[in-house]
Task: structure prediction
Amino acid sequence: MADAGQLADGELAGGGQLAGGRIVLSGAEGRHAATVRRLMAGQRADVTDGDGTVAECVVTGIGTDSLELTVLAVRADPPPSPRLVVVQAIPKGDRGELAVEIMTEVGVDVVVPWAAERCVAKWRGARGDRSAARWRVTAREAAKQARRARFPEITAQAETADVARLAAAASLAVVLDPDAAAGLRSLPVPAHGDIVVVVGPEGGLSPAEESRLAEAGAVSARLGPSVLRSSSAGAIAAALLLSASGRWG
Result:
């Protein structure tokens, strides 16, 4: 049976649970599976709650806007260690969703939108709520595409004081800086706790932000000889750190 990919259980009919022998997926997720992805009876499809539990299923019934699946096995993925948190200065336009999509595919566990001083884009009021919602939808869809058992958390917009607190509590906190003396790969990677990576805006961090994060214990590190866009730097840093931590390969 072909593996049909990953679905989310956010709309299980009747409040079904992944541990049960039968799952009926309805609503938007069921419609997408039945009409867009055109899953067929007998195909494999995994269903996740996004919090580490995955039901390995086979499709047994298809409705106009629902999918019935029989659970073959259930597994629980342990929480990641170390946990990778990327503080992402808010980019202009849709580059924020691009950053979230790639970071989700790579394996970032938490994305923190940051209103850095030199960010051109600012999240305010209802417009800010819509932007945050787009980031969360992007993360959910990218996580399903990447077949992640745990979906990344997209937090509320953070101020610099919030980022400093994250850095102070982390096992390792890194501020990406193309002019830093140390390379990211030269830093010792902890086996446990949080690794916090701070990605600044295109204009860089302000002196006040640099000082605040350094006081909180964050170290500066460069990625390589070229200067990356803010929307891609977090994903590249995440890949290097996940590899060094043993979570990759």
